[in-house]
Amino acid sequence: MKLGMNLPVMVPGLNRELILDWCRRIDNGPYNSLALGERINFPNPEAMVTMSAAAAVTERVRLTFSILVLPMHNEVLIAKQIATLDVLSQGRVTLGLGVGGRKEDYDAVGADFEIKRIARLEEQVARMRRVWAGENVVEGALRCVEPAPVQAGGPELLAGAIMPKAIARAARWADGITDFSFGPSLDEIQGKMTAAREAWEKEGRDTPPRFVASFWYALGDNPRSQLDDYLGRYMNFLGPELSKMLIPTVTTTSGQQLKELAKALDGMGVDELILAPTTSDPEDVDRVADLLG
Q1: Mean pLDDT of 19-36
Q2: 277: closest CA among 237, 234, 227?
Q3: Partners of 5 in the β-ladder
Q4: Could you give the CA distance from residue 150 to residue 195 in angstroms, rounded to a whole number?
């Protein structure tokens, strides 16, 4: 099982020095991926710009969007941006795509949250692949949308699918699943892995799905307080009652737990574990490397 690390983009107080320090430490460590997810109506840095900075200061790690909420965007523009990032990183982009669940993010950019988002996502992916294949997507135009990505046909695509129906639909277009588990729950992760493998087989896919697992963790002197502070901010869109109920279910607060979970996921056949930090302290990159590297 490979190991990846999210940038702490959902933690307040980030600046140029912190973001670039995290990027360089991840690239210099035992990590396969440097990852981040997308939010709009939240005090976090914009995903595409942040990944561009990461591409400029790293040489080795894959640049993984744990999720980009594609129905909020124009897919041709995203295809051009991702291809450009693939050029800048010399072919190191992995793109996780999903429909998201936060109406406020859609509203912030004027996108329609009520459309059939999963069907829309599939249509958008098909058009992005046409762009990356060098096909003309503008009727009557003399040129196609470029640059071409370094990775022929475009980057690896992972589906941010949670429910069985979404996983089944993902088997039509994705190369694998990027999952996030609150607890984390090993049973929940195993169930999604099984559902993905069955869906890929049903679609007649020759290659089984790659499965990427993620969860939050906290290390250091006051890990429970760190988790509670982070999750209190991040989950406030759910309302006080639901967030109060969910926060205690996130339980990874020690190095020993982290090692045991990583060992269990490796034994289950998870292809990559991408950890989600709850602090902006770049020393966390080295702490995890010492534990799991």
Answers
A1: 98
A2: 227
A3: 34, 275
A4: 32
Look up residue 161 and give its amino acid: A
Q: At CA 90, angle to CA 86 and CA 91, rounded to 5?
A: 55
Cβ atoms < 10 Å from Cβ of 254: 14
Specify which residues 97 forms β-bridges with: 68, 159
CA distances from 277 to 36, 164, 167, 194, 219 (A): 11, 27, 26, 27, 9
| Confidence band of 12 (pLDDT split at 50, 70, 90) | very high
Say yes or no to pLDDT of 121 above 90.
Answer: yes
* Total-model pTM: 0.96
pLDDT confidence tier of residue 281, bands split at 50, 70 and 90: very high
11's tokens: 């933690």
Contact 212, 176 (CB under 8 A): yes
Which DSSP helix (H) or strand (E) runs through 38? none
Q: In 29-97, which residue ranges form alpha helices assigned H by DSSP?
A: 47-57, 75-88
User: Residues near 290 by Cβ (< 8 Å), separated by ≥ 6?
Assistant: none
- CATH 3.90.700.10 for domain 2-292, yes or no, is no
Using the Cα atoms of residue 228, residue 264, residue 29 and residue 81 in order, give the sign of their dihedral.
Answer: negative
Mean predicted lDDT score pLDDT of the chain: 95
CB neighbours of residue 61 within 10 Å? 21
For the beta carbon of residue 267, count every other beta carbon within 10 angstroms: 10
Other Cβ atoms closer than 10 A to 279: 19
**Which residue in the block uniquely carries the two structure tokens 């939010």?**
39
Q: Is the peptide bond before 240 cis (omega within 30 degrees of 0)?
A: no
Query: Whose structure tokens read 């990427």?
Result: 212
Strand partners, 276: 216
Nearest residue to 196 (alpha-carbon basis) of 125, 270, 133, 249: 270
